[in-house]
Design a protein that fits this description.
By secondary structure, the protein is of the alpha+beta class. The chain has two domains: 2-207, no CATH class; 216-341, no CATH class. It has helices spanning 11-21, 100-113, 122-129, 178-183, 192-207, 216-220, 223-227, 231-235, 244-248, 293-312, 322-326, 333-341; strands at residues 2-7, 22-29, 35-39, 65-72, 84-85, 92-98, 131-136, 162-166, 170-175, 188-189, 255-262, 265-272. It is globular, with a radius of gyration of 22 Å. Bound molecules: iron/sulfur cluster (2 copies). One iron/sulfur cluster (SF4) is lined by residues 239-245, 276, 327-329, 331. One iron/sulfur cluster is lined by residues 248-251, 304, 317-323, 333.
């Protein structure tokens, strides 16, 4: 790890280096005034004072619709109906100014998609390996952020190649991987006063994360004790099962696979799906193991806060607060998790 310094007026030079090797994406202000991920054309479009994007950047690694294989639909072709795997990403991509929580979310999903040889999703791995993650530390967390409660934080470094800390006219550039070190190799070392400023900013940002949630009782409880807790009868009631919380979430990763044909052409695609949908678990037999709204609501929280930590030692939430912000009926993730963690479950 090395700390370098970059004047913001020289960001263009860094972007030029990036652009020669990568397609560059960043959070940019759209016409409605929201900050969302888009292709970056000019450094003047960069936004430095945003809280976070409404939708997470997971689509760059896990697209909402992704072609996995192609086939042709011709009966006279001996290769007809033979699936051919889709080529991987043609050009490397860089996610510039990704928030530390969103980078950590992708790292958490590695435990699902490419943990070892038995779980090696080639589509996921291809894009993970061809993506550079240049993070931007959070200065002012939102009221709904609770990253520090879930093994993350405003300056969290895991999952990043570089962490940028905005020091006003300058950026502290912390290199965290070989790729990051190479990109920053021509920058000067950061002076001590810049390092101190960054350390102080980290302390202040962590202290500004007001929303907190405990997980210790969830961890020590048995799965069935939590699963059968009476709280689920109450908590699920206002939920509409609309699924918005799962689509904006950086760690939700359910998908559905379909074959589509048009004329002689066919493709196998996977699309984001949601555990909030009744159809997601509907079996061909007619049985549905999560047939009620309560089942589906409980699944979302149990999966993130009990099953994933139990199975992979990873919390399936990075505390970004997007689900709380987007829920049309104001269901607050910290309130539900707080109930799961109460000393007396009821
Ligand atoms: S956004 Fe709210 S209402 Fe919609 S599924 Fe999620 S918790 Fe339920
Ligand atoms: S569950 Fe909510 S707070 Fe946690 S990572 Fe997903 S959107 Fe963010």
């Amino acid at each position: 790890m090395q700390d370098k310094i970059l004047d913001k007026s020289e960001v263009d030079a860094l972007l030029e280096r990036l652009g020669s090797e990568y397609d560059v994406y960043a959070p940019l202000r759209d016409q409605q005034g929201s900050v969302e991920w888009a292709a970056l054309d000019s450094s003047s479009d960069l936004v430095w004072d945003f809280s976070n994007t409404g939708v997470s950047p997971k689509r760059f690694v896990f697209p909402q619709t992704e072609c996995m294989m192609r086939f042709n639909n011709r009966s006279d072709d001996p290769e007809g109906m033979i699936m051919k795997q889709e080529q991987g990403l043609q050009r490397q991509q860089a996610l510039l100014n990704i928030r530390p929580c969103d980078a950590k979310a992708l790292k958490a999903l590695d435990s699902i998609y490419c943990r070892d040889q038995t779980s090696n999703d080639v589509y996921w791995r291809d894009k993970r390996e061809k993506t550079l993650y240049v993070g931007l530390a959070c200065k002012s967390p939102c009221p709904t952020c609770f990253c520090t409660s879930v093994r993350c934080g405003p300056h969290y470094e895991e999952g990043l190649d570089i962490l940028l800390v905005d020091l006003g006219e300058r950026l502290l550039v912390r290199t965290l991987s070989e790729k990051g070190a190479e990109l920053a190799s021509n920058l000067s070392d950061a002076p001590d006063e810049a390092k101190q400023q960054a350390a102080q900013q980290k302390e202040e940002a962590e202290a500004a994360v007001r929303s907190q949630v405990g997980l210790e009782n969830i961890q020590s409880r048995g799965i069935m004790e939590l699963y059968e807790a009476p709280m689920w009868d109450r908590e699920h009631e206002s939920c509409l099962n609309c699924g918005v919380c799962t689509y904006v979430c950086p760690t939700c990763h359910c998908f559905d696979i379909q074959d589509e044909t048009q004329g002689e052409h066919g493709r196998r695609v996977r699309n984001w799906d949601t555990c909030m949908s009744w159809l997601f678990t509907y079996h061909t037999s007619g049985h549905n193991p999560r047939g009620t709204k309560k089942d589906r609501f409980r699944q979302r929280f149990m999966h993130k806060f009990k099953y994933m930590p139990y199975k992979f030692d990873v919390i399936g939430c990075v505390g970004c607060g997007r689900c709380t912000q987007s829920c049309p009926v104001n269901i607050d993730v910290t309130e539900v998790v707080g109930e799961m963690n109460e000393p007396d479950l009821n």
